[in-house]
């Protein structure tokens, strides 16, 4: 509970803490870095946000890439870490509890040019941060010409003091463009580490440009957009990238947005997540760009999220939201997508949701209707998942040149008005997320769906939030009485009429269940009603991360844990408790065998919480390349591996669990990168699933491999006939 709520505890019920938060004008302190379900994230393109330090606009080592007129959309415009720090009061007042900043490693120092040596207008300067040269230094345009950490450290310290977490966008798939500027070369704290054009140590992949986005091998091993593809299975690159992210963790980064995870070697990404979690408490979500269940790699994305330990940006949900609010589709599209994802993802509450981001046109460029943007943002802020607000949406900023596509979705943050409807909408719903755990941890039940009307309820323990949206521009809607979990009583709209919401009366129905009276929903309106009452016993709402080895620090969060320390059980084994509050407990995984466990919290008074699932693994993860020669591939068949570890399926042959499918660009040889426990005496078999679903296993004994204790590994076997 926030200090504001504690201060008013004797005067207010927990359901009125929202009012206390709003009138106090402060955001509740962010929870532990591992519990991101309570957070409201604000995505910032650092260069486009605010120029807080003019001395770094045209640094001596990378001159000529800054445009003070802000007319060259591919140049630096001056935003920096100091600028973000300057605007923290604005973000705090809005209720933001985490800021997602652009990639911050040192980017190339010279403009990108074409074959004629002239700058390429559409590839001029890496203002966005995705054209890496040195992962061990900070970009001078955002900090200082010394490439030091001073400005970064100042920003993170100030953010943490305001209860705001730092999410770093991190892009370890590649260095820079192979055909221009610095030609892919990579540096380690100023020292040349790898040269793309002369690479005897194999630190890059050299397969040319990605041309087929439906080919899994090309996706992971070819150059995306001409960027030099890093070979993460090279032990030097593996260590270099992990040392880089650990350095950022040491400088205050609380969470990581991992760029382009479908292009990084998928098995290596598991070891990256494990490395981050093992080093310091954190939260990780990846960018897996996809269109939805029809995407050929949708099932791979679900498998990745379910077993890697990291969540994903929820692109399918975003596409459905944009179809409904910008393209006038009916709300049933959102309903179907949520139902599908809830079936396919093991942890849907950890999916990171959004309306706009830096890679797609802003909603206002697709449909210039502020009502629709506000309604969409209200949905993201109240539906299941961790919401992201893209910078400037609360100010209705957009540029419609070329349909608002990149780079025109990356506008200059020209307004910081705290009175817009968009700003106040985020402010009220961010405060509600802190005061009512139904939004962070609750189930989501659809109560009424019509083409223009969406009514749903969130519930966690005794906390309830009811939301009603009418996106019609002209027609009111009347909804018959609905069953609800809200207790009988009269309810004010949490948004206080900001979006034409109304009051609600809930009565006791004939069967004893609460029901609303008829809901009268004005055009383009959002109504939010809530009740927050203390649970009768401990209720766990999240655990993070969801997979790890003995000794890793884990956080569980929820409510009514008590002020006095109790205990945490992983299965029947007691865990060492590191910290304990009424809402957050941290502990370390005890020395238990690998497998699936239920984690339960027991209060000092002996009350036991609901169980939450957790997967233990044997040890830290090491990326290993498994190669199988002479595979008898069947047309349309896929190769998988199963073995004696959790990560290799524990001898199960279910393709949703077993690593695979293998990549077979040079049949009959197939290979796959898999993360396995360090030092493990691994046993495994390879099997094939035919197009008709039939299973074909190797004959003979099990393969054996001694996993190294550090670095990376590789093993090659023959298919046993």
Describe the protein in words.
Helix content is 21%, strand content 27%. The chain is an alpha+beta fold and 721 residues long. An 8-stranded parallel beta sheet has the order 12-11-10-5-2-1-14-13. The chain has a 5-stranded mixed beta sheet with strand order 25-32-31-27-28. A 4-stranded antiparallel beta sheet has the order 15-16-17-23. It is globular. The N terminus is likely disordered.
CATH superfamily of the domain at 288-420: Glycosidases
| Biggest sheet statistics | 8 strands, parallel
- Average pLDDT value? 93
Percent of sequence in beta strands: 25-35%
| Strand numbers in spatial order across the main sheet | 12-11-10-5-2-1-14-13
* Helix-and-strand structural type: alpha+beta
What share of the residues lie within helices? 10-25%
Name the poorly predicted regions: 1-31
């Amino acid at each position: 509970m926030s200090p504001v709520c504690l201060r008013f505890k004797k005067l207010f019920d927990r359901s009125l803490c929202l009012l206390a938060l709003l009138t106090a004008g402060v955001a509740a302190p962010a929870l532990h870095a591992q519990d991101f379900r309570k957070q409201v994230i604000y995505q910032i393109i650092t260069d486009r946000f605010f120029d807080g330090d003019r001395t770094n606009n045209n640094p001596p080592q990378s001159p000529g890439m800054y445009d003070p007129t802000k007319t060259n959309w591919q140049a630096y415009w001056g935003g920096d870490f100091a600028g973000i720090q300057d605007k923290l009061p604005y973000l705090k007042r809005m209720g933001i509890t985490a800021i997602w900043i652009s990639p911050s490693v040192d980017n190339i120092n010279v403009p990108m040019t074409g074959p004629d040596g002239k700058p390429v207008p559409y590839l001029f300067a890496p203002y966005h941060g995705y054209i890496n040269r040195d992962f061990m230094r900070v970009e001078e345009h955002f900090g200082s010409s010394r490439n030091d950490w001073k400005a970064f450290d100042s920003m993170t310290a100030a953010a943490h003091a305001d209860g705001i977490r730092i999410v770093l966008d991190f892009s370890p798939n590649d260095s820079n463009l192979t055909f221009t500027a610095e030609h892919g070369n990579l540096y380690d704290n100023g020292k040349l580490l790898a040269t793309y054009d002369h690479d005897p140590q194999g630190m890059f992949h050299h397969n040319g440009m990605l041309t087929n986005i439906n080919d899994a091998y090309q996706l992971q091993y070819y150059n995306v957009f001409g960027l030099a593809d890093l070979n993460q299975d090279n032990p030097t690159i593996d260590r270099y990238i992990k040392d880089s992210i650990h350095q950022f963790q040491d400088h205050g980064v609380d969470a990581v947005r991992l760029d382009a995870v479908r292009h990084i070697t998928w098995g290596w990404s598991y070891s990256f997540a494990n490395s981050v979690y093992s080093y310091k408490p954190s939260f990780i979500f990846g960018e897996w760009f996809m269109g939805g269940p029809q995407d050929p790699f949708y099932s791979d994305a679900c498998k990745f999220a379910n077993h890697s330990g990291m969540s994903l940006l929820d692109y399918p949900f975003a596409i459905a939201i944009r179809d409904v609010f910008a393209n006038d589709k009916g709300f049933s599209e959102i309903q179907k997508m949520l139902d599908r994802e809830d079936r396919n993802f093991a942890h849907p509450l950890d999916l990171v949701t959004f309306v706009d981001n830096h890679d797609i046109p802003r909603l206002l460029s697709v449909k210039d209707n502020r009502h629709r943007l506000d309604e969409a943002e209200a949905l993201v802020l109240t539906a299941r998942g961790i919401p992201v607000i893209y910078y400037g949406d609360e100010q209705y900023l957009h540029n419609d040149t070329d349909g608002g596509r990149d780079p025109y979705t990356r506008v200059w943050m020209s307004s910081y008005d705290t009175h817009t409807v968009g700003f106040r909408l985020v402010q009220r719903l961010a405060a509600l997320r802190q005061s009512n755990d139904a939004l962070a941890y609750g189930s989501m039940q659809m109560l009424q769906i019509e083409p223009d009307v969406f009514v749903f309820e969130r519930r966690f323990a005794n906390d309830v939030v009811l939301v009603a949206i009418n996106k019609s521009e002209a027609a009111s809607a009347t909804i018959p009485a609905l069953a609800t979990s809200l207790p009988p009583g009269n309810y004010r709209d949490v948004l206080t009429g900001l979006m034409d919401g109304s009051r609600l009366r809930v009565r006791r129905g004939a069967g004893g269940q609460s029901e609303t009276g008829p809901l009268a929903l004005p055009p383009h309106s959002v109504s939010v009603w809530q009740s927050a009452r203390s649970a009768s016993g401990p209720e766990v709402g999240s655990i993070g991360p969801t997979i790890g080895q003995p000794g890793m620090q884990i956080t569980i969060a929820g409510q009514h844990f008590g002020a006095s320390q109790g205990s945490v059980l992983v299965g029947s084994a007691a865990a060492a408790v590191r910290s304990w509050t009424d809402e957050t407990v941290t502990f370390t995984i005890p020395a238990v065998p690998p497998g699936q466990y239920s984690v339960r919290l027991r209060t000092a008074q002996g009350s036991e919480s609901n169980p939450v699932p957790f997967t233990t693994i044997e040890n830290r993860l090491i990326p290993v390349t498994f190669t199988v020669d002479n595979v008898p591939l069947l047309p349309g068949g896929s190769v998988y591996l199963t073995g004696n570890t959790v990560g290799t399926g524990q001898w199960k042959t279910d393709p949703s669990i077993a690593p695979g499918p293998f990549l077979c660009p040079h049949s009959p040889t197939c290979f796959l990168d898999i993360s396995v426990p360090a030092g493990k005496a691994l046993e495994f078999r390879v099997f094939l699933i035919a197009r008709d679903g039939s299973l074909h296993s190797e004959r003979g004994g099990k393969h054996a491999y001694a996993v190294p204790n550090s670095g990376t590994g590789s093993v090659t076997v023959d298919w046993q006939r």
